[in-house]
Design a protein that fits this description.
single chain; 181 residues; mainly alpha; 7 helices
């Protein structure tokens, strides 16, 4: 019971809750309405960050080497790996959306196929829940295939869920403020 007591309740009395919910809603709507450019932007930001970290590590290694200080080969290795990863993110930013979509779609597809196999096994044993599982499996397989084939669907869902979360936070804030008056 002491764990339940230690759970912190959501505090809607602070205006920062409302501001962060509005920011989340804006971010979610940008992702929902323009997912491809959002993914490319994030890839550029991540790639740029990796490039900066990589360059910093390489320069630090070279400077330490010039001052004849003890240097570690892992510093230059991390620098080169970060630099290469950053350049990959920047150069292949369009491919990142495709790979993410394929990986997530394949994951849903694989889980749907597993659920289909389990539901078929349950159908043979005359289990009542087998029909529900069969419908869910078919829906998961269709969803996985659709996610793989349809551009930006995954990121539109992410944007939509962020907007729904933000709306729930805004409603919670409004209800709390209205109740506390």
């Amino acid at each position: 019971m002491k764990y339940v007591d230690s759970i912190k309740n959501k505090n809607y009395s602070n205006i920062s809750t409302l501001i962060s919910a509005i920011i989340f809603f804006i971010i979610g709507s940008v992702i929902f309405t323009n997912p491809n450019n959002t993914v490319i932007f994030v890839a550029y930001v991540l790639g740029g960050s990796f490039v900066i970290i990589g360059l910093f590590k390489i320069i630090a290694y070279v400077m330490a080497k010039k001052k004849e200080k003890e240097t570690y080969i892992k510093d230059i290795s991390i620098g080169i790996i970060a630099l290469v990863c950053g350049l990959i993110f920047i150069i292949f930013s369009n491919t990142i959306e495709l790979l993410t979509r394929i990986i997530m779609g394949a994951w849903i597809l694989f889980n749907g196929i597993n659920l289909l196999a389990n539901s078929i096994r349950l159908l043979r044993s005359k289990d009542n829940s087998a029909k529900v599982l069969l419908v869910l499996a078919i829906l998961m397989i269709i969803s996985g295939l659709y996610m793989i084939l349809k551009n930006n669907l995954l990121f539109q869902f992410i944007g939509l869920f962020i907007m729904i979360y933000a709306l729930m936070e805004i409603i919670g804030y409004i209800c709390f403020v209205g109740r506390s008056k």
